[in-house]
Amino acid sequence: MTGQELDLDLLDRMRSGDEAAFLSLYRKFEPPIYRFAVNMTGSPVLAEDVTQDVFLALIRENFGYVADRGTLSGYLFGIARKLVLRHIERHRGAFEQEMDDADWTRPELVAFPDPMSDLLRREGIEELRRAVLSLPRRYREVVVLCDLEEIDYEEAAGFLGCPVGTVRSRLHRARALLLDKLQQRFESKPRLKSLNAARSLI
Amino acid sequence: MTCQEFWSQVPELSALDPQVDGSPAGRLLLQHMRGCPTCAALMDRQGALRAGLRRMAQEQAGLRAPAPLEAALLRQFHAHAGRSQTSAPTGFAWLGTPTGKTLTAALVSAALAAVLVWYRAPSSRILPLSMPEIEDAADLDSGFVPLPYAGTLAPNPEAAVVRVEVPRSTLVALGVPMSDQATGGTVEAEFVLGLGGLPQAVRIVE
After folding, report:
1. Residue ranges per domain, chain B?
2. Tens digits of per-residue pLDDT, A55-102?
3. B34 CB within 8 Å of a chain A CB
4. Which residue in A has a C-alpha nearest to residue B94's C-alpha?
5. Residues B110-167: pLDDT tens digits?
6. Phi, psi (5° rounding) for residue B187?
7. CATH of the domain spanning A1-90
8. Which end of chain B is more exposed for a tag (fewer CB within 10 A), N or C?
9. Inter-chain Cβ pairs, chain A and chain B, closer than 8 A
């Protein structure tokens, strides 16, 4: 039995009121959906709301899922994506301001000799997480799906409703943007330190 | 191999490390990297980025939504499972969906309006019954069938009952059991109207 067949079996049992089937589906899909929402929004609170709404939709509107049109996984990620995009659109200004503020107000910024060599250290991972969050939405979602959730390109294309080639090109562009952002952050740190040093002289 | 050819041939847009790819294409890529410090440096940066993203994914592997969410959703599941098993038992499952509910409500309202207009609504045809208020749920056991979108029929002091003629096809579409399977013509039926005049239940007048 394939993963999709197993999911459909669980869905059928869930529809007939089988609690264990619902819990199996929840425990299978909650972690990736929650992580997707966290990585897309940067907010655990919002990610919890998104996760809740995705499963409420499954409970209340499971008849909206049509197996012929795609996998259950894709259906659930599709709902999560719509909810996330709705939030991003609604809070676009605040979201961008939050990212900008985060770049310039962290006092603990420390310059490292090479932003790439630092990527495996905790500080480097944190910088990378912030860089991912600051990517434009269409690039961020391919990085989150393909690089962080390790979903293959075809499945990601199904989630996003675009050709596989678009996923590839967006991923290519996203990685280039990430490298640029990391480099820019690296280059900005000495300036920030210099600025702080200058302020201390005033 | 030019730099452009190099980047167009790196599998999966540089997701694969040519250093560990022993294929002929991989060897060509490796050969280009040895002769081109720029591409080699870019590949190193891409490799470092991929390693960083893998590390980030590993750190997040245990990330979960707060535990109380599962319990809250389980309660919602039980509440919904209870409702869905008591409604729409006649193969009209689509009536239980939000779209179905909206369509059904619109259908019934439109049918009632159409019937009232078509018959020019002679006052004698709309017969408010002697029980304009439903005081006891037992009153509803006399053949009233709750409409699919209405949920459980509960006592409602605001409810009223009207008698109209409706097409048989409308009642069949609503899942009302008909003794005669013919769908043509009209029958006389009584509708329980809830708040806002929305029909809540129906019964055929024999």
Report:
1. 3-60, 95-204
2. 998 888 655 787 887 888 988 999 999 999 988 877 665 555 444 444
3. no
4. A63
5. 666 655 554 444 433 333 333 333 334 344 456 677 765 555 555 555 567 777 777 7
6. -135, 160
7. 1.10.1740.10
8. C
9. 107
Q: How many CB atoms lie within 10 A of CB B54?
A: 15
Q: What percent of chain A has pLDDT over 70?
A: 74
Instruction: Output the six-digit token pair for B77.
Output: 């599941």
| B162 phi and psi angles, rounded to 5 deg | -125, 150
Q: How many helices (H) and strands (E) does chain B have?
A: 7, 4
Q: How far apart are CA A2 and CA A5, in angstroms?
A: 5
User: What does DSSP assign to residue A84?
Assistant: H
Contact list, B69 vs chain A (CB under 8 Å): 30, 48, 51-52
The pLDDT of residue B180: 57
Residues of chain A with CATH 1.10.1740.10: 1-90
pTM to 2 decimals? 0.59
Pairing of strands B186-193, B160-167: antiparallel
The token duo for B150 is: 């209405």
Length of chain B counted residue by residue? 206
Tell if the CB–CB gap between A148 and B50 is shorter than 8 Å.
Answer: no
Candidates A147, A144, A155; CA nearest to A4 is: A155
**Cβ–Cβ < 8 Å for B152, B165:** no
The helix/strand/coil state of A158 is helix
> What CATH code would you report for A104-202?
1.10.10.10
Q: Which of residues 57-76 of B touch A (CB under 8 A)?
A: 57, 59-60, 63-66, 69-70, 72-74, 76
ipTM: 0.77
